Automatic annotation (TrEMBL):
Superkingdom in the source lineage: Bacteria
Organism of provenance: Shouchella lehensis
Residue stretches in coiled coil: none
Family from the record: Belongs to the CinA family.
Domain MoaB/Mog: residue ranges: 4-172
Gene3D superfamilies referenced in this protein's UniProt entry, alphabetically: 3.30.70.2860, CinA-like (3.90.950.20), MoaB/Mog-like domain (3.40.980.10)
Identification of the protein by name: Putative competence-damage inducible protein
Lineage: Bacteria, Bacillati, Bacillota, Bacilli, Bacillales
Length: 417
């Protein structure tokens, strides 16, 4: 099956809102092995929309339209699709009851034009709208092609897509379950991961494999459709095992986790506390940790020592180290980590020193970073990095690498790596 996504709305063409629906739907379809060949945006014009639908079906088996299902005169999607399919619009009693209840629940008067939203194309499979008023629908055509109508507001479209449309498209009526497992990777780019797994991705069947880039990380969503729960687990485990043989060193977690959550979990499970000494990151590491509930049980404290004088006074970094090696050096990062560990009597310490940019610092290029990680009774581990991006991107990436390498150390202590 291949698909085309058509976003309807003049406000999209005028740049008043972004077409985030197209991005979302593409990601969801990719995760279940449906290829999206084209994205189209068309204004609120019946003739142009009719032409766009005709051209879309010349390229695709499945058309998904978003927007234009509301009560106003410029909401033309249903009327135009009905005209294209040569079918009538009919009232859906359940949809009308839902709309009337919606107005009653919100203490609003229902105007006559809102009844327009209860019209559906004759013979369509109706998709319930649990978060708004206008229902969606799926129209099956005689040539085995389908056209889908979804509401425009993302708050309505996304739950309808996930809860109503996707199970229908994938044949929920055959009682097969659709199960996904998301693998989280860090320290490897999307292009490199796809290159390393190219043959696996190209030959995917069941499970399907969808790479997803997000916030400097890479995710792989494995999706299985099967009637047997044990077979679902076997298929997911087998596919994951093949992937791990190639890129397993970069895997850090599953499903809804993040680097921060994983570090917090390991610290909590091992009964350890952490403190951080930050220079150019300016407290970002500590800020990420305290965004999680219960951070007070693992975070002892944080010192932001930006200048050389502050590093010496607050963290005990020696003048000799600064003179011989410089502030952005493995020696300085090690003393920063040791200093915060000793002063705050914490189990684990992490330090950050670097050049955020945009200018060079002496001979050091922007993106030159050193992270130090200290555990009791063992040498400080220092990690030099060369990161790309603008000033704030370098700072955020450094913090993510800090979490990644700290997690690596925690896993080694736990014997899970």
């Amino acid at each position: 099956m291949n698909a085309e996504i058509i976003a309807v709305g003049s406000e999209l063409l005028l740049g008043q809102i972004a077409n985030t629906n197209g991005q979302y739907i593409s990601k969801q379809l990719a995760s279940v092995g449906v290829d999206v060949y084209s994205h189209t945006v068309v204004g609120d014009n019946e003739d142009r929309l009719f032409k766009t639908i005709s051209e879309g079906f010349a390229r695709a088996d499945l058309l998904i339209l978003t927007g234009g299902l509301g009560p106003t005169k410029d909401d033309l999607t249903k009327d135009t699709v009905a005209k294209f399919c040569e079918r009538k619009l009919v009232y859906d009693r359940e949809a009308l009851d839902h709309i009337e209840a919606y107005f009653k629940r919100h203490n609003r008067t229902m105007t006559p034009n809102n009844k327009k939203q209860a019209y559906v194309i004759e013979g369509a499979h109706v998709l319930a709208n649990r978060h708004g008023m206008a229902p969606g629908m799926v129209v099956q055509l005689a040539n085995e092609k389908r056209i889908v109508l979804l509401p425009g507001p993302p708050s309505e479209m996304k739950p309808m897509f996930e809860k109503e449309l996707l199970p229908f498209l994938l044949g929920a009526n055959d009682q097969a379950s659709i199960t996904s497992r998301v693998l989280h990777f860090f320290g490897i780019g999307e292009s490199q991961l796809e290159t390393d797994l190219e043959d696996i991705i190209e030959n995917q069947q069941n499970p399907t494999i969808a790479p997803l880039a997000s916030d400097g990380e890479v995710k792989l969503r494995l999706t299985v459709k099967h009637t047997d729960k044990n077979e679902i687990k076997r298929l997911l485990d087998e596919t994951e095992s093949v992937i791990m043989d190639r890129v397993g060193d970069y895997l850090y977690g599953y499903d809804e986790t993040t680097l921060v959550k994983e570090v917090s979990r390991y610290l909590d499970e091992q009964g350890l506390t952490v403190a951080c000494a930050e220079s150019f990151t300016g407290g970002l590491f500590a800020s990420e940790l305290v965004s999680l509930p219960g951070a007070s049980s693992i975070l002892t404290g944080s010192i932001t020592a930006y200048t050389e004088e502050a590093k010496t006074a607050l963290l005990g970094v020696s003048q000799k180290t600064l003179q011989d090696h410089g502030v952005v050096s493995e020696a300085c990062a090690a003393e920063m980590a040791q200093g915060i560990q000793e002063r705050l009597q914490t189990d684990v310490a992490i330090s950050f020193t670097g050049v955020a940019g945009p200018e060079k610092q002496g001979d050091l290029e922007p993106g030159t970073v050193v992270i130090g990680i200290a555990f009791p009774q063992q040498p400080v581990r220092t990690i030099p990095l060369s990161l790309s991006g603008g000033r704030n991107a370098v700072r955020m990436r450094a913090v993510k690498y800090g979490f990644f390498y700290l997690l690596d150390e925690l896993k080694r202590r736990n014997g899970s790596k």
